[in-house]
Structure formats: C-alpha cells, structure tokens
Amino acid sequence: MSWIREGELSFIEKLTANILKAGPMPKHVAFIMDGNRRYARKCHVERQEGHTQGFDKLAETLRWCLNLDIREVTVYAFSIENFKRSKEEVEGLMELARQKFKKLLEEQGNLEKHGVCIRVLGDLTLLPLDLQQLIAQAVVGTRTHNKCFLNVCFAYTSRHEITNAVKEMAWGVEQGLIKSSDVSESLLSKCLYSSGSPDPDLLIRTSGELRLSDFLLWQTSYSCLVFQSVLWPEYSFWNLCEAILQYQLNYWPLQKARDQHHEEQARQQLEADCSCVAELLQQHGSARPAEACNRQDLLLSYAVDRDQRIQGFLSALQHKKDSFFTDLTSQAVLA
Amino acid sequence: MALLYELAWRALHAILHLQRALVSWFRARLCSWNWRLWKRAVAALLVPVALGFQSRKKLGPPAARRGCRRPRWGADGRALEKLPVHVGLLITEEEPRCADIANLVVWCMAVGISYVSVYDNQGIFRRNNSRLMDEILKQQQELLGADSGKYSIEFLNDTEQQVCKPAMVKVLSSDDGKHSIVTAARQLCRAVEQRERASKDIDVHMLDSMLRGSHVTSRNWLKFINVLVYHMKLHVFVFIPLAFLILVDLNLF
C-alpha cells in the first residue's frame, strides 16, 4: 500500500471541509496512532496485520490532511520504549518499516509531484543499519520538497529528544561556538529533532488512552490535545473533523496563552542580556556604572553578537545532522 | 460561496457555544442545589471510573453499616488495587476558588495519595501560598474531623528539600516548567565550559537526576502543560467537570 493515497473527498466531506476551513485551521497536526493491537484482537487477526492496517490508515489520513490544507503532520511510529516489547513484535515492526521505506523510495516521482518532504525524528543509531540507510535515502531524496511535510517519529521519546538538544548545546559550548549564557528556551527548541517544524497546533491520540507517552512534550505546551476513543485503524474523516472542531473552539484561549508566553520569553531574554552585560562590565573593571545610553548600546551590541554566535552554531549543527544522513546514503550506495 | 461557508461555520460554532453554556449553567444549578453531595458523587464516581480500575474489594459490613464517611475514605483507598502516588491538579479557571482546590487536596490525602501538585498558569496560588495552606488546614478539620490529626501536610517551596512525610503539597506556576530544564541545561553547559564535564557524558539519567533533585524520589515532581512536561511521559489525564484537569502519575510501584 502506497504512502500517498490519491483521491478526492466525497461531496459531503468536501462541504464539511469547506465549512471548517472558514475558521482557524491547524497548520501542523500530530498523531499518536494508538490501537493497532487492540484492533487486531477485535478483528481476530495477527498483530502484524493490525500494524499494517494502521499504516494504511496513515496514508488515508495524510490525504484528508492535504484536502484540509493541513501541510504538516507528525506521527509517532515507534517509541524507544517499544524496544521492550517481544522480540517477535519488534522484528515485525522493523520489517514493516523496511517494506514501507523501500516502497517510499519507489514512489519518488509521486512524492516529487505532491512536494512531500519526509523527515524521520529520533535516535536512529538504535535501529538496524540497513533500516538507517533506507531512512537516510528517503530523507535525503525528499529534502528539497517543500509543499507538505511528514515527520515520522521513529526510535523516539521526548526525554531523549530534550536530552539530545542539551547535549548538542553542550557540544556547541565545547567547540567554542556559543557560551553557556547563550542557552535559552528558544535555543533549546532549535536543537530538537523537530527544529525544522513549527510546534503542532493540534495533537490527537486515538484508542481512548488519556496520556502523552513521552511524545512531543516540549513542543505541545500550547497545543490543543484531543483524545478520541476510536482505534487508529478505524479512524475516519469525521473523527478528524471532530478534532479540528475542538481545536477551533479552544483557539483563542490557547493563542492568548501562547502570546503571553512569548512576551515573557522576550522579557527573560532581555533580563539575561542585561545581566551578562553587567557581568562583562564588572570583569573589565569599569570604575563607574555605564551611562544609560552607553548601556543601551552595549546591550544592543551584546544581543547582535549573541545572535551571530547562535547562527554560527545552528549552521554547524545543521551541517552535522545533514552529514549523518549523507554518510549513511553513501554507505548504502557503496554496499 | 466563501460567505455561505463562513455563515455555516459561525452558525455551527454558535450552536456549540450555546450547548457548552447550557451544560455549564445546568451544572452550576446542580452544584448550588446540593454542593457537597455533588462533589462527593463526582469524586466517588468519576475518578475511579476514569482510572479504569478493574476490581474493587467490597467494603466490610461494619464500615457500610456505620455509614461514617471519614473512615471510609481510607478504606476506599486501601481497597483500590492501584493508587496513584502523585496527583497533579491543573487549574483551568481564570478565578479559581481556594475552597475547591483545598477540598481536592484533602480528599487526595485522606485516600492515601502522598504527593499533590497544584498548578495554575497565572501563578495565583504561588503568590498566595499561605491562603491555600490555611484553607487546606481548615478543610482538613471540617472534612476529617477527629481523624485530621492522622494526616500531616507539608508545603514545599523551591528551596526546601523534601523530607518523607505522609502528604506533600507543591504549588507550581509557569516558571516551573521549561524554565527549569533550561536552567539545568545552562548548568551542564557551564560545567562543560569549565572543562568539568564533556558533552558526550550528558544522557537522560543525568538530566533526569538534575531535574528531580538529589533528595527527591523518582515519583515526584509533576510539571505540566506550559509547565514542563518532562516527567509526564506516563501520566494519565482525568478530566472532571469542575474546570480542573487532574494528572495522575502512573509510576505506582
């Protein structure tokens, strides 16, 4: 089954979509696709079949999202915690991933036609090498596409993601690219696996479980969380519309909270800059406190320097990430 | 055509808002009619149902015949197969009532829950910590009566190290979230800057222990929504119709 399902909505679905689109629409939706195993038990089929049906439903959901002008989708495909499942199930999921990524590579033309950029987020070094290479080929092959984005969280947990971001910042300090005083919430966000995407507007979890399971914990601070009891393989267009309606009903309070937080972040950054400038002045042994206009100039100059350091660090980090994938792709070609 | 769709959208949202308003009005009427009975019904029915407990041992006849509420809470807690260690209360109302939160804290304590965190985005309870404390102590007397002496409550502020006591209450605000991770990250980067550490040594356990603090056990600090959700990976959401959102720590063992 293909990653991209061609097809249009029915008349009623189109009408509903047009009505919903008259209001604020989420630009980025995240899915926790829960319920494949329960679905398999319910239908008396093998677990593997449940996961396969789950993938097919993903393809269908991506089409609905495109029809609703939702250009970015993030899905939780495989958690680091899932490695604790039985060896048989883990191997089955790895094999399913191999088949799907191989299929993806065969559909390069289709992906180019729709402008789909695939990103895989997680600690890929935990996966078998051949799967890493397939993933790398898919990511590198669709890197330049920019019409819509599919982020697949594979070998992922939010804690690992946050820890990795802290580690990257520490690497930046070690390399002399940034200072420890440059560390901020905004910089940490730019070091996450998902740094290329805006935060999700809407997070949907199926199967009735009311928890986040270590998924996008940092990014969903101001997202609308919708928990739906339907099992993932049974997800329908109407379930998606219901979730979008919830998002629209809660749009203004979330927007207000988000704006307040941005203001607070800007205030904290200014405070941090002031404190750094004061410390620098003290270190340089200024005999008297700097005059107000001098202080303002110093502050501006410090902020510009900080921004330049951070840009340099982020470029180096991006180069490191890109090299990881291109090295894997080269290995795959040579093999 | 676009205008028609917009009108349809506005009509749909008007209907949904009206439905919400009617439901809130109805609940408010029911609450004012018999507030205490309503609260206890909500607590008795919704929390165990939402947590999906599979079985409950039946209470012995003497407790039931006595018809006494207070010893029953403790028995109810012991009767549950799984009891959360830590409950987080996310206040979603703009003007939360101290008495409501104090009630919930006292019920949690009476049932046997060791840690309760209270969060509101505005930081109202953070600024008026003593008011909440007084209300909790008052509710403790009122609801638990003669048994109130069995339960001691400890309030923890930022600087205080945790000591193991029967019930710990922590008040959180938006400063306790991502801010605390950024502070820990800065400390680690400073250590790297001063060549006390290497970046490759940083892992999940190191960051975890920095965030939890050296004297805090693994089940403690809950930080939610804007607040940090680092510890929320296994937490279950329970929504109750009193403008609260309760988070329950599933690290039960």
Walkthrough of the structure:
Chain A: One of its GO terms (cellular component) is dehydrodolichyl diphosphate synthase complex. Chain A: Its main location: endoplasmic reticulum. Chain A: InterPro entries: UPP_synth-like, UPP_synth-like_CS, UPP_synth-like_sf. The complex is a heterodimer of chains A (335) and B (253). Chain A has 11 helices and 6 strands. Chain A has a 6-stranded parallel beta sheet, with helices on both faces. The longest helix of chain A is centred in the C-terminal third of the chain and has 43 residues, at 292-334. Chain A is α/β, with parallel strands linked by helices. Chain B is an alpha/beta fold. Chain B has a domain at 74-171 and 240-249. Helix content of chain B is 49%, strand content 13%. Chain B contains 9 helices and 6 strands. Chain B has a 6-stranded mixed beta sheet. In chain B, α1 (2-33) packs across α2 and α5 packs across α7 (129-144). Chain B is flat and about 65 Å long. Residues 49-70, 158-165, 214-234 and 241-253 of chain B have low confidence and may be disordered. Chains A and B meet through α1, α7, α9 and α10 of A and α1, α8, α9 and β5 of B.
Topology at a glance:
The complex is a heterodimer of chains A (335) and B (253).
Chain A: H1 11-20, E1 28-32, H2 36-42, H3 47-67, E2 72-79, H4 87-106, H5 108-114, E3 116-121, H6 129-141, E4 148-156, H7 158-174, H8 185-190, E5 202-205, E6 224-227, H9 237-249, H10 251-283, H11 292-334
Parallel strand pairs in A: 1-2, 1-5, 2-4, 3-4, 5-6
Helix pairs in contact in A: 1-9, 2-3, 3-4, 4-6, 6-11, 10-11
Chain B: H1 2-33, H2 35-51, H3 61-66, H4 69-79, E1 86-91, H5 98-111, E2 115-120, H6 124-127, H7 129-144, E3 153-156, E4 167-172, H8 178-193, H9 204-212, E5 236-240, E6 244-248
Parallel strand pairs in B: 1-2, 2-4, 3-4
Antiparallel strand pairs in B: 1-6, 5-6
